[in-house]
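Need the bound structure for NDP, inputs here:
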Amino acid sequence: MSDNTTLDTVILGSGCSGLTAAIYTGRANLKPLVLEGHEPGGQLSITTLVENFPGWPEGIQGPELIENMKKQAVRFGAELKMAHLNSIDLSKRPYALNIGKETIHTRTLIIASGASARWLNLPSEQALIGRGVTSCATCDGFFASGKEIAVIGGGDSAMEEALFLTRFATKVTVINRSENFRASKIMLERAMAHPQIEFLTSTTVEEVLGVDEKDVKGLRIKNRITGVESILPVSFMFLAIGHIPNALAFKGMLDLDEDGYILTRNNVFTTHNGETVPGVYACGDIQDRRYRQAITAAGSGCMAALEVEKFLEEHGR
Ligand code: NDP
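Answer from helper R.:
Posting the output first, comments after.
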């Protein structure tokens, strides 16, 4: 139980892993505080049908799955707060978290801040975000109704988005920088069989056209093998090229790998210069570059919660 000033546990992030951690720590009567973060509900909240989460033989919509998890966490005493971490001091316990005007003290911390969409980082792309350049098919697909569009990427996300976008767009061109696709066979086959979807491989986007008009007018693309450039006349560019872990706040405090994922021991125990940072655990996509599934995120959220319980018990709570 928490005293008035120091909480037993704070969970950063309200995606699949954070909410699972909230359910478990809630049931352990630890009254977890969940800071919902920049993208409440995480990646599932902007996805469509989730077909591989056990228990829903017909699939479940991502936002519905997240809403169910939130209700379940709240039922067991979790408090959800619309806030995100500004800065943190992990040098002494209890840990101090700054969330704007407020500082929160906590004995343990579960980092479940997930990962955010990756961009190409072309100046023209950045200038046109929200004006035809987007990383969220679920959010912006409708606006592509009756238009020709491009999806960038060659993984499962790109296939899923391309298929979803055929509901709106008249033609979807998937642009993959590599010759081979990273997508699973089943997703790739589905997309390839779709009459509205075309594919360009070994192709990069050099420039998004339309900066002056403030609206995407097309893409200047380049074949990496022949070096030939051409213009693809599309009105939208949907990015599906993976994600970047939201671990910047922990740089210098926790060990991160070369891509910024938190390095953990046994999936959940964070380390610092070879020593553990006591009572700080990471779960979900912020520490998982390999599996990145809803079910593995949920599983590691559960593990983090159980570690928190054990840690507090061992420290006399
Ligand atoms: P992936 O890492 O699998 O694929 C990323 C894709 O983006 C690759 O084709 C990669 O190309 C390309 N890419 C990366 N950076 C750039 C860049 N700077 N410029 C151009 N292209 C780039 O990410 P996903 O988001 O597709 O999938 C992540 C995980 O989520 C996977 O495990 C996937 O299976 C899973 N997933 C499952 C779904 C489902 O089961 N329904 C749906 C969506 C995702 P390259 O190969 O050249 O590096």
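Comments: Residues 245 and 260 are 6 Å apart (CA to CA). The two ends are 7 Å apart (CA to CA).
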